[in-house]
Design goal:
alpha/beta; Rossmann fold; 6-stranded parallel β-sheet; 4 helices; 28% helix
């Protein structure tokens, strides 16, 4: 077991799935199933789970205090699991995330969540620049299509780009397989 690893779940909030302001995130049900299994296995392996929750301003799909702002009920944090609130795409900017991780001796981050090209990408790059060993769960992050690319294309692009320089890539099924060890050979 490697006690220096944490699972970082980014912005998996109800507003990403149910909101009058945005359509549901691409393949949202599959993402929730994958995350639920990943979180369960991390907990079984005694790997801390850290949640990041975006706090948007008035009128934002994740407006702080609204029902859409809450972590999705399918993957609710357990009592004692940290929830770090952020106001920027960078989950380290203006938050205590780095200090929290440092105080727990975390040196490796396994990253999953939403939104691939913004908060997930930024978390991976910033964590890398702060000296963390980063694993991006390639099948456990999602986004929406834009005018140029489908959601699937953006996810594939970011897996390729981040995986070439900033992170190790791993499929969710390869992580936290054995409750007696916190990481796999992918880490």
């Amino acid at each position: 077991m490697q006690p220096s690893t944490a699972l970082l779940i980014i912005d998996v909030q109800l507003g990403m799935f149910v909101s009058p302001l945005v359509p549901p995130v691409d393949q949202g049900d599959a993402l929730l199933d994958t995350l639920r299994t990943l979180i369960h296995r991390a907990r079984e392996a005694s790997v801390p789970v850290v949640y990041v929750q975006h706090s948007g301003g008035r009128g934002h799909p994740l407006e702080e205090g609204t029902p859409q702002w809450h972590v999705h009920p399918a993957i609710q944090p357990r009592e004692g699991e940290p929830v770090v609130r952020k106001h920027f795409s960078d989950c380290f900017q203006g938050t205590g995330l780095h200090e929290l991780l440092q105080s727990r001796g975390i040196k490796q981050l396994v990253v999953a969540g939403i939104q691939t090209e913004f908060c997930v990408d930024t978390a991976c790059r910033r964590a890398f620049s702060l000296g963390y060993q980063v694993t991006l769960v390639e099948d456990a992050h999602s986004t929406w299509p834009n005018k140029v690319l489908s959601a699937r294309q953006m996810i594939a692009h970011h897996n390729l780009t981040l995986g070439s320089s900033f992170v190790q890539l791993a499929r969710s099924g390869s992580l936290f397989q054995d409750s007696r060890q916190a990481t796999t050979a992918a880490l």
